[in-house]
Specification:
By secondary structure, this protein is an alpha/beta fold. It has helices spanning 23-37, 55-58, 71-81, 93-99, 101-109, 150-153, 159-163, 180-198, 213-216, 220-234; strands at 43-47, 62-65, 86-92, 115-120, 169-176, 203-209, 238-242. α2 links the parallel β1 and β2 (62-65). The longest helix is centred in the last third of the chain and has 19 residues, at 180-198. The N and C termini lie far apart (43 Å).
């Protein structure tokens, strides 16, 4: 009896991510959903800049590469030209919440019928561990060496809560990739987001609280624990908007 097999939604390329990083797990979940829905051949992904940039190496569907922060602008163009395709972006918090925040807000406000997979690890991972818009209060980074001070450096931006207020948004949920049970829930959430897009309901986003052990300066086990115990205090999990339940 077959218990488990590798998803056809994944390429054969070996991962380059650091030990304990959850990007690879998230890629796997996205790939499995695309295969389960039977839309691998009709999906176009948009890769952002940062640790998320290599999504096109691992997820086995068509991909485009966007400039830093412009993934949602590119996705908008693709979806409008090819409305029958399933279009999604795969973005980190630096790309989506900092240089790309205008594109994020306006794509949501226009109700673009696209899906965002948003990996929030509260730090700039690829470029050396600088403070991000999502960095937690008191979190030490290379640019907040005494810990983030909300009085001078602002508070973390609550992307899910903010986007949930926008009329064009159909579905927003925040999840944490911290256990096998959580992975099952995340897969269901991603599937719902893609299904809402296929129904033409509007903008959908799944925010996934993620690890960055190297820049957290923790081993993978402790990094995962920090996501579950510390990040969720600042970023509560749950569905922030679902147009079918309004």
């Amino acid at each position: 009896m077959l218990i488990y097999k590798r998803s056809k939604g994944l390429t054969d390329k070996s991962t380059h991510f650091c030990p304990g990083c959850t990007h690879g797990l998230l890629h796997k979940l996205v790939a499995e959903v695309l295969e389960d829905l039977g839309i691998l051949d009709t999906t176009i992904g948009i890769a952002s800049v940062g640790c998320s940039v290599m999504a096109y190496d691992y997820i086995n569907c068509d991909f485009l590469q966007a400039a830093h922060g412009r993934a949602l602008a590119v996705a908008t163009g693709v979806k409008r030209v090819l409305p029958d395709k399933t279009v999604f972006t795969y973005q980190g918090d630096g790309d989506l919440a900092s240089i790309g925040i205008a594109e994020t807000i306006h794509a949501a406000n226009r109700g673009e019928n696209i899906t965002v997979i948003f990996a929030n690890n509260a730090i700039y991972g690829m470029t050396g561990g600088q403070m991000a818009p999502t960095t937690l209060p008191s979190q030490v980074t290379t640019t907040s060496q005494l810990g983030r001070d909300p009085q001078t450096q602002g508070n973390p931006i609550p992307i899910s809560e903010m986007l949930a207020q926008i009329k064009g948004v159909a579905y927003v949920e925040r999840v944490a990739l911290t256990s096998p049970a959580a992975a099952i829930r995340i897969k269901r959430s991603i599937k719902k987001a893609f299904e809402y897009q296929r129904e033409g309901l509007g903008f959908t986003l799944i925010e996934v609280l993620s690890t960055c052990p190297v820049n957290f300066r923790k081993d993978p086990t402790q990094a995962m624990k920090d996501v579950q115990e510390e990040m969720t205090k600042i970023y509560p999990l749950g569905v922030y908007k679902d147009v079918k339940k309004l």
